[in-house]
User: Fold 3-demethylubiquinone-9 3-methyltransferase from Sphingobacterium deserti.
Amino acid sequence: MKGTIYPAIWFSEAAKEAFKDYVEIFPDSQIIESNAIVVSAKLNGVPFIAINGGPYFKPNPAISFMVICETQEEIDRLWEMLMDDGEVIMPLDSYAWSPYYGWMSDKNKVSWQLFLGSLEDVNYQPIMPTLLFCGPQQGKCKEALAFYKSVFREFTDQGSMSYPDGDREGQILQAQFMVNGMTLMAADSVHDQPFSFNEALSLVIPCQDQTEIDYYWAAMTKNGEESRCGWCKDPYGVSWQIVPHNIDELLRNNPAANKTLMRMNKITIADLMI
Assistant:
């Protein structure tokens, strides 16, 4: 996928089955391409990929997906379908921030927040990756947002609110921002949590050339952490995949490229073409 950042969800082995379900649940959705390892799709018009990576990482609510609906009926429909063998985190109800809202994790342990609101307020992007700074990252949301603003050449701050009092006073209650075409939300957790960010939910940065890969890799791994195949963690523990925008084509056109990729940390495009 070219251009915008997009989220990736890690599965043990059921990526295609899970995304077939999501395509049935969300409108304006389709599987674009799939193989034994990667599934690319659009859910509610938003690009996603799913990865069959084995039983190493499991999703948790540190990264969830905020779904903006403009009718209560749509929220009820999505809730019923996503709740099949799922678990309630916050029940459907009226809250101070929305007249109708609920938070749950589905049978794949992927978390969804269903929010009655206006699509105009979220740049007409119905599903937004939402970062919850908790565990060892508690209280670091404001610092992380400043970091992302310094890293991304296309960054728009679309507003934030802070906790007015209590133990979290001054921490971020809610923030909305756009990076490289993708609208995201972020917050510091109101409660102490036993989890934090992991590789099960990552964000992919498709890069136009090696210069762009080098730039983002250096920025994210400075005080962050390198991993294999273009994966890394930023200083706040959020996982990113920094890849060529045409990674699928490069791997498809060169049978040896997959083995080469497995030996890499930062991706070197020229080596995938040998």
The chain has a mean pLDDT of 96. The first strand starts at residue 6 and ends at 11. Residues 209-272 form a domain with the 2,3-Dihydroxybiphenyl 1,2-Dioxygenase; domain 1 fold (CATH 3.10.180.10). Residues 210-221 form the longest helix (12 residues).
